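A reminder from the course coordinator: this example appears on the midterm review sheet, so study it carefully.

Given structure:
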């Protein structure tokens, strides 16, 4: 498994960005789970498979990994016994360990996954992923980093101290683990508490890169992972059903459209630079105008493929009717949807969610201006699974450190 990419953006002064960890030690026997075709081909080469056979062998592994959810090499009956033994010598089919599973009263499920750290044998990092079933779809909210180098003032993940990029395999593995736990592999014995599809369809229909981390700061791994999950011969979730959310990493937006080609969501949250500087400190590097220009030029954007603008509703901060009017004006000419997200408070957060009648007024103005403006109903509140609440049990900042960070943010 490759080491995660370094975040190449220069780390700015103050608290705009934290420095990510660089080291990551893969287990002695790497897992094939989550690997792309290219990496599987390398694994087969290491296992002595001659080049002319590799493509066909990759296709066989692909079937067992991504259509059948195989957990042992013995199951792979289309693969010769010798090769199975050779693969088992060198590789595993391990998934990240599920450290905790929580099921909300509304059906939302949250998994805490344990991943290797920087030193062999140490406890490692944790990352969360959330399953949100709805009437017409079921969405898996996937993480791209352990923690986040950015420090948005209203986001729980931003308060996490340590940050490391996930590998492509670890990103794909979140989908695999979800399907394991949901009993979503055809012909496989479901675990206790699984949902199990009854109509022949799949339980995970959509993916949003809206968990922990900034996906465009882990571009290569996210691109590779999304190629694996959208591959029509395997997990086959179409790119139209995958949304990547960014806080506004302007230089990477065009590449995201051209090289990944999924739907884009942008965390706007404010209509003025002074306020956005405070809420999304990355705005100091890439202000609103630059961000919206990048959106206008997003490859593939059209009325049929609109960009979603996320707007968290913070009481008395960004929720006035004047803000709604300014928002409509700002987005003029961009094929857009606006997603109003009620703020999800977390222990120690300093903001409050806007009152419902204010959210409704805001939403109505946007609707009357011609935008669909669904208010995203908070899900899984009882298990702290809603947007921006994801944060592992370890590596928390103390309240004092948090206050110090905020104070620095104000003066930076
Ligand atoms: N880093 C990326 C994706 C992960 S965050 C980004 O910022 O876009 C996914 C979404 O949840 C973003 O729109 C983020 O602004 C929002 N969010 C973060 N904390 C939140 C909170 N406490 N309540 C509501 N939404 C929140
Ligand atoms: Fe990171 Fe997104 Fe949270 Fe900001 S909102 S701190 S970019 S995860």
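Designed residues:
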């Amino acid at each position: 498994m490759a080491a995660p990419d370094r975040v190449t953006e220069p780390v700015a002064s103050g608290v705009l960005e934290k420095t990510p960890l660089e080291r990551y030690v893969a287990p002695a026997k790497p897992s094939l789970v989550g690997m792309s075709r290219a990496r599987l081909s390398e694994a087969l080469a290491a296992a002595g498979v001659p080049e002319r056979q590799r493509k066909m062998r990759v296709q066989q592994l692909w079937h067992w990994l991504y259509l059948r959810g195989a957990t042992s090499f013995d199951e792979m009956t289309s693969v010769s016994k010798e090769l199975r033994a050779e693969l088992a010598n060198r590789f595993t089919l391990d998934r990240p360990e599920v450290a905790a599973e929580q099921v909300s009263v509304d059906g939302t499920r949250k998994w805490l996954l344990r991943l290797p750290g920087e030193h062999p044998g140490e406890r490692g990092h944790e990352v969360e992923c959330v399953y949100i079933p709805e009437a017409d779809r079921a969405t898996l909210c996937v993480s791209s980093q352990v923690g986040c180098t950015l420090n948005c003032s209203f986001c729980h993940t931003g308060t996490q101290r340590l940050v490391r990029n996930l590998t492509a395999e670890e990103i794909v593995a979140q989908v695999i683990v979800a399907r394991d736990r949901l009993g979503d592999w055809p012909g496989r014995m479901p675990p206790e508490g699984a949902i199990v599809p009854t109509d022949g369809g799949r339980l995970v229909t959509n993916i949003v890169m809206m968990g922990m981390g900034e996906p465009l700061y882990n571009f290569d791994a996210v691109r590779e992972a999304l190629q694996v999950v959208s591959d029509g011969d395997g997990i086959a979730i179409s790119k139209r059903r995958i949304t990547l959310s960014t806080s506004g990493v302007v230089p990477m937006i065009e590449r995201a459209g051209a090289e990944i080609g999924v739907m884009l969501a942008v965390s706007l949250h404010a209509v003025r630079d002074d306020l956005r500087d405070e809420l999304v400190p990355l705005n100091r590097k890439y202000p609103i105008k630059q961000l919206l220009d990048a959106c206008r030029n997003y490859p593939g954007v059209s009325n049929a493929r609109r960009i979603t603008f996320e707007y968290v509703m913070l009481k008395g901060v960004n929720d006035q009717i004047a803000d709604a009017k300014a928002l409509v004006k700002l987005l003029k000419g961009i094929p857009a949807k606006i997603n109003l997200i009620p703020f999800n408070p977390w222990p120690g957060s300093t903001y409050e969610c806007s009152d419902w009648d204010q959210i409704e007024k805001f939403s109505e103005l946007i609707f009357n201006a011609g935008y669909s403006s669904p208010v995203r109903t908070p899900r899984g509140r009882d298990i702290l699974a809603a947007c921006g609440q994801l944060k592992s049990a370890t590596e928390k900042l103390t309240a004092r450190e948090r206050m110090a960070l905020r104070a620095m943010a104000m003066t930076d």
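The longest strand covers residues 125-133. The mean pLDDT is 86.
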